[in-house]
């Protein structure tokens, strides 16, 4: 048997057919989807995310506003027919700004989560697979970075570089991959002693092959659940940075920056500058958390049989 | 200085009587200076003030300061080559209360009093020492360096400020009782104060806030923990039509509002020494085009709620004075995007439908881009501004928006006030434009001749602007009395744009507890005088 044939024969646990009480064999993936679909909060979460994605990315194609040029003659207007959510302190239409800000928050949040998950997965998988002193060094690096308060690191990084979407993604990913690395390393430690990984070694397979083809894919449940939580965390981080005035410069914006600006007007009661971005942040983060919870149920075999 | 130093250490001459930009003879340590010998000799006579340790404030204490200034001019932020102390050729102690200065040339009496003598603050004999014991800086300039080093080292001991036997020797109405480097400071009356304006309060506390919103939240809570604060412009509900007159006050239940106008101009500098963008900034047509993109009027009306006024040149429009030339009462460069585009396209720039204009006619001819500008160079600049103030953000967003319509890309970024100011120095060639939002307050250069900020080589000439005509005009204001030379200087510089003029917000919309008096009228040079405050029932 060649190595490739062996690997093909060693189907991963996610594809192993199970026989449930009914006696009918059901794939883990399918069962996972069913478990996910049973979770009403998760479905609501998906709906919220879809609505916000449509609102932020399709909305501007239908609801046209000028989010580039300020209009100082129309600042802080109350909501009316022309501006359903009023205007802000620079005369931007607030509804259009909510769409623009959402694009930043969602793009940066999702991209940072993906980047952090990818890097954290690789780091953790390699560390756990190799073990020994390499594992010790790699994990001490993670521990060392975890010891630095993330907000301090974010503020430091955001201060020394001129912020842009790309920079924000990288900066947030830089402080977000550590948790993923630890989780995947734990998975990797248990997976590397499995027979099919040992067999790859025996048959002459290299470490890269073992990590990329066996360890990482078999930790996919953990990784995906973690990634979804990462999205929620990253969106909150973008909001926090925006709130602290360290988000991308105008005329771009994000929900945190909008909230920060809006709060300057709290005392004069300009609610339309505060509640919409605040509500958007809360809804999207809660939605991602619902989805994450449901995914954990779906991928975790023990939780599937509730 | 105005919130801290002058409360404890009185300057030789104190300026501002309420809203009037004049010499305050009551709070000054000395009688008005007497000029003689055609303006080449200044005689200063001290009033009978005493230090808190019982010793008299003498002419030797004035000499102490002047000697220190001479010895340490490299460490004096307001030093301008040729100005004080360089323009003093001899100093003579006439008696314990009188000192005579011989000047190298005849100077305008007003300028010399308002801008040169204004920088002198007598220092107590108790400070004339080093770690090894008493020194003689007051009489021997060569001793001053060691004294300076000793005092500087002592000044780094922040925790000992309130208890230090060195710093507790004061001649002002207040002395420190508590000092925290985070900005919490408590003063108590100096019981040995010998001036006429003795404190009536038993304690005066200064409380720091990181943002104006945080400060406003405290005073609007009605807790009365702060008796004198301010309301941020964005929290004003109804705008005013006159920046000097208070409109509706949302806090009227507990406070009365008083707009505070400082003797200041607002601007942000451009870096003439930047090797890439400096050659563009050196082109007058570009500076004029860019100035046409700054919408002062609408920012004042919208973001400042009317509590602001134009900056049309190097002389403040408020408080109203005869110092401003007639033609600078209006903005010479009002918002005009078409005018900006015209200026650029007529000088070799091609403006695309979007993005940055490029130089398509390099050279130094009449219709060319100008010296040092390469073909294909783009009109793209970085502008860092101080975060945390609503109207500054609005101004910057508006500028970026307007500039984009004229083919100029402005990359905005934010920083703290300190970060932005620290970067804006002439020795740093990397920045393009820095806006700390505060421009320049004319203190202690109380007569607005601009020598501290626009003269070639001046320490606060952030962008290293240099212009021989302007230097000559400034020099004329130093040597010739009367407003004529000041008008000539202002007229020329306003249109030369050594910096970009921006709207000037009222320094503060002060909120004063209803039972507190003596706070208003507020000092035009932004000094505070809690010794004049008192409560009524």
Quote the distance from N terminus to C terminus of chain A.
40 Å
* CATH fold-level assignment of chain A: MetI-like fold
CATH H-tier superfamily of the largest domain in chain B: Dipeptide-binding Protein, Domain 3
- What is the overall number of helices of chain A? 13
Q: For the largest sheet of chain A, list the strands in their spatial order.
A: 1-2
- SSE pattern of chain A: HEEHHHHHHHHHHHH
CATH architecture of chain A: Orthogonal Bundle
Low-confidence stretches of chain A: 1-20
Task: Specify Rg of chain B, calculated over alpha carbons.
Answer: 24 Å
The domain tally of chain B reads 2
Strand order of the largest sheet of chain B: 3-4-6-5
Tally the beta strands of chain A: 2
Structural class of chain A: mainly alpha
- Rg of chain A, alpha carbons: 23 Å
How many separate helices of chain B? Answer: 13
Task: Determine the strand fraction of chain B and express it as a percent band.
Answer: 15-25%
Question: Which features does this protein show?
Answer:
A: 306 residues; mainly alpha; B: 537 residues; alpha+beta; Dipeptide-binding Protein, domain 1; Dipeptide-binding Protein, domain 3; 2 domains; three-stranded antiparallel β-sheet; 23% helix; 19% strand
Please summarize what this structure is:
The complex is a heterodimer of chains A (306) and B (537). Chain A is built from 13 helices and two strands. Chain A is mostly helical.
Would you mind describing this structure in some detail?
The complex is a heterodimer of chains A (306) and B (537). Chain A contains 13 helices and 2 strands; from the N terminus they run H-E-E-H-H-H-H-H-H-H-H-H-H-H-H. In chain A, helix 4 runs parallel beside helix 7, helix 5 (132-147) crosses helix 7 and helix 7 (165-191) crosses helix 9. In chain A, 70% of the residues lie in helices and 2% in strands. Chain A has one domain (24-63, 91-304): MetI-like (MetI-like fold), CATH 1.10.3720.10. Chain A has helices at 3-9, 28-38, 40-62, 94-130, 132-147, 150-160, 165-191, 195-202, 207-218, 220-243, 255-263, 275-299, 301-304, and strands at residues 17-19, 25-27. Mean pLDDT of chain A is 83; it is low at 1-20. With 537 residues, chain B is of the alpha+beta class. Chain B folds into 2 domains: 5-155, Dipeptide-binding Protein, domain 1 (Alpha-Beta Complex); 264-505, Dipeptide-binding Protein, Domain 3 (Dipeptide-binding Protein, domain 3), CATH 3.10.105.10. Chain B is built from 13 helices and 27 strands. Chain B has helices at 5-8, 59-71, 109-116, 144-155, 212-220, 278-281, 284-291, 296-302, 337-345, 390-404, 417-423, 468-479, 483-496, and strands at residues 14-17, 20-24, 34-36, 41-45, 88-95, 98-103, 129-130, 133-134, 174-179, 185-189, 204-206, 228-230, 255-260, 264-265, 267-268, 308-309, 349-350, 358-359, 380-386, 409-415, 433-435, 440-441, 500-501, 504-505, 508-513, 516-517, 534-535. Chain B is globular and about 75 Å long. In chain B, 49% of the residues are buried. The interface between A and B is medium-sized, with 24 and 36 residues.
């Amino acid at each position: 048997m060649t190595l490739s044939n062996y690997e093909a024969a060693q189907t991963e646990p996610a594809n192993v057919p199970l026989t449930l009480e009914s006696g009918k064999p059901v794939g883990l993936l399918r069962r996972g989807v069913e478990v996910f679909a049973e979770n009403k909060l998760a479905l609501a979460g998906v709906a919220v995310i879809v609505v916000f994605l449509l609102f932020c990315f399709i909305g501007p194609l239908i609801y046209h506003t000028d989010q580039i040029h300020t209009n100082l003659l129309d600042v802080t207007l109350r909501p009316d027919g022309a501006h359903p959510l009023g205007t802000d302190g620079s005369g931007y239409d607030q509804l259009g700004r909510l769409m623009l800000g959402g694009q930043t928050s969602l793009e940066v949040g999702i991209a940072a989560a993906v980047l952090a998950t990818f890097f954290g997965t690789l780091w953790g998988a390699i560390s756990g697979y190799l073990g020994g002193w390499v594992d010790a060094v790699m994990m001490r690096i993670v521990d060392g970075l975890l010891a630095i308060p993330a907000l301090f690191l974010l503020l430091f990084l955001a201060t020394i570089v001129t912020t842009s979407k790309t920079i924000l993604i990288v900066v947030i990913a830089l402080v977000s991959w550590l948790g993923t690395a630890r989780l995947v390393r734990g998975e990797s430690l248990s997976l590397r002693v499995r027979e099919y990984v040992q067999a790859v070694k025996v048959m002459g397979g290299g470490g890269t092959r073992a990590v990329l083809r066996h360890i990482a894919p078999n930790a996919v449940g953990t990784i995906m659940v973690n990634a979804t939580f990462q999205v929620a965390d990253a969106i909150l981080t973008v909001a926090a940075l925006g709130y602290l005035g360290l988000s991308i410069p105008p005329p771009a914006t994000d929900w945190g920056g909008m909230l920060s600006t809006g709060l300057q007007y709290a005392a004069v009661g300009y609610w339309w500058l505060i509640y919409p971005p605040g509500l958007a942040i809360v809804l999207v983060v809660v939605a991602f958390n619902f989805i994450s919870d449901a995914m954990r149920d779906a991928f975790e075999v023990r939780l599937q049989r509730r | 200085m105005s919130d801290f130093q002058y409360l404890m250490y009185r300057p030789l001459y104190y300026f501002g009587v309420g809203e009037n930009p004049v010499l305050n003879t009551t709070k000054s340590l000395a009688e008005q200076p007497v000029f003689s010998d055609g303006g080449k000799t200044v005689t200063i006579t001290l009033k009978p003030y005493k230090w808190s340790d019982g010793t008299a404030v003498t002419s030797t204490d004035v000499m102490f300061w002047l000697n220190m200034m001479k010895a340490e001019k490299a460490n004096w932020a307001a030093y301008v080559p040729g100005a004080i102390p360089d323009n003093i050729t001899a100093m003579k102690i006439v008696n314990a209360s009188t000192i005579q200065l011989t000047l190298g040339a005849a100077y305008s009496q007003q300028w010399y009093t308002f801008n040169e003598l204004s920088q002198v603050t007598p220092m107590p004999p108790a400070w004339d020492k080093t770690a090894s014991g008493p020194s003689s800086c007051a009489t021997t300039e060569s001793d001053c360096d060691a004294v300076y080093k000793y005092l500087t080292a002592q000044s780094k001991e922040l925790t000992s400020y309130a208890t230090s036997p060195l710093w507790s020797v004061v001649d002002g109405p207040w002395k420190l009782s508590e000092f925290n480097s985070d900005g919490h400071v408590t003063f108590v009356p100096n019981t040995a104060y010998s001036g006429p304006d003795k404190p009536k309060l038993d304690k005066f506390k200064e409380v720091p806030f990181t943002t104006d919103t945080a400060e406003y939240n405290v005073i609007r809570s009605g807790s009365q923990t702060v008796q004198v604060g301010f309301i941020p412009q964005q929290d004003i509900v109804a705008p005013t039509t006159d920046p000097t007159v208070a409109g509706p006050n949302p806090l009227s239940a507990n406070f009365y509002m008083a707009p505070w106008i400082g003797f200041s101009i607002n601007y942000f500098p451009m870096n003439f020494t930047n090797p890439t963008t400096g050659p563009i900034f050196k082109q007058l047509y570009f500076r004029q085009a860019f100035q046409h993109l700054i919408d002062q009027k609408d920012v004042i009306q919208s973001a400042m709620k009317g509590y602001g006024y134009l900056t049309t040149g190097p002389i403040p429009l408020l408080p109203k004075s005869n110092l401003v030339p007639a033609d600078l009462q209006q903005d010479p460069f009002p918002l005009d995007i078409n005018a900006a585009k015209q200026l650029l396209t007529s000088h070799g720039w091609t403006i695309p439908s979007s993005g940055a204009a490029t130089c398509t006619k390099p050279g130094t001819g009449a219709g060319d881009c100008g010296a040092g500008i390469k073909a294909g160079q783009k009109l793209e600049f970085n502008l860092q501004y101080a975060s945390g103030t609503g109207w500054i953000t609005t101004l910057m967003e508006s500028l970026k928006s307007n500039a984009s319509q004229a083919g100029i890309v402005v990359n905005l970024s934010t920083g703290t006030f300190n970060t932005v100011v620290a970067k804006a120095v002439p020795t740093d060639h990397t920045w393009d434009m820095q806006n700390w939002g505060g421009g320049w307050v004319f203190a202690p250069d109380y007569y607005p001749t601009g020598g501290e900020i626009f003269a070639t080589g001046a320490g606060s000439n952030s962008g290293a602007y240099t212009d021989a005509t302007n230097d000559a005009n400034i020099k004329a204001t130093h040597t010739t009395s009367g407003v004529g030379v000041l008008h000539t200087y202002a007229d020329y510089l306003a249109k030369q744009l050594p910096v970009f003029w921006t709207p000037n917000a009222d320094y503060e919309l002060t909120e004063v507890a209803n039972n507190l008096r003596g706070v208003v009228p507020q000092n035009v040079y932004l000094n505070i005088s809690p010794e004049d405050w008192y409560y009524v029932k």
